[in-house]
Amino acid sequence: MKKLMITTGNGMFGRGLVDSLAGRDDVEVKAMVRNLDAFDVHADNVEAVRGDMDDPASLTAAVDGVTDVFLVSPMDEHIATREINVIDAVVATGADVRILKLHGAVEHRGDHLSQLHAASIAHLKDSGLRWTLICPNSVMETSFLGLNKAIQFGMIAGTSGHGKVGFVALQDVADATAQVVSDGGFVGESVMLTGPAAVDMYQVAADFSKVLGKQIPYNDMTDDDFANMVIKFGAFPDRETCEMQVLCHYRAWRRGDAALVSDDFERVTGRKAESVLQWIEKHKDHFAGK
Predict the structure, then answer these.
(1) Does residue 103 sit in helix, strand or coil?
(2) What is the rounded CA–CA span in Å between residue 19 and residue 175?
(3) What is the pTM of this model?
(4) Which domain holds residue 43?
């Protein structure tokens, strides 16, 4: 029986994996959260435990008795510090534990975000623990859900030009990760999770237009013009936050550094990954203002 601790049990990736594993009889789940009252999953194989990646002392109980840890942290300046805290807590147990670290498949070419992840990965590989890197390409939920207001105004804006991206659905990331946990495979390897094809934002806009039944053009902008626009409308508090959460990703898309398409999802799960068009159809009501 696998016993998996999931960091950020209320976060996007963490909660997605919790939901994918809930009710299974081959994996017990410890969902680590800072606020137990905010966790609302009720399943026989799921237990919420309090822990804070910023508080190393709180991690001891969270990692006790586990066979695997799904390691993901919020996308900010503290990625490396928080993840190293978890790795060190696991090492201190002396147990044979595998860390499944989330590390995006987009190539950031040494920018600040990639440096933070590189520090965490280097520490993990030096720790002596078994490891697997779970590497999703840009996730549709983070890439598209925030476009609903812009789409209602009849336009999608960005800075990625004709750069193509192998967008992947969050559910596919969660389901593939759940299977890797259960099977115990891919130790010392990277699992590259992508959609079935790489598309640019002009094609994404065309897919939205098709599903929603109205013309939605894609407007490509400079980094500065886009940043000024979204900060003006309150999407981000400052340029630094916009850079970390959006611009560095759009820049990688524009360079073609997110064009990877892999068959790892199908190899792991035995089914085809969801396409952008299928994902939009599934989430049509969100973008139709219903």
Answers:
(1) coil
(2) 9
(3) 0.94
(4) 2-136
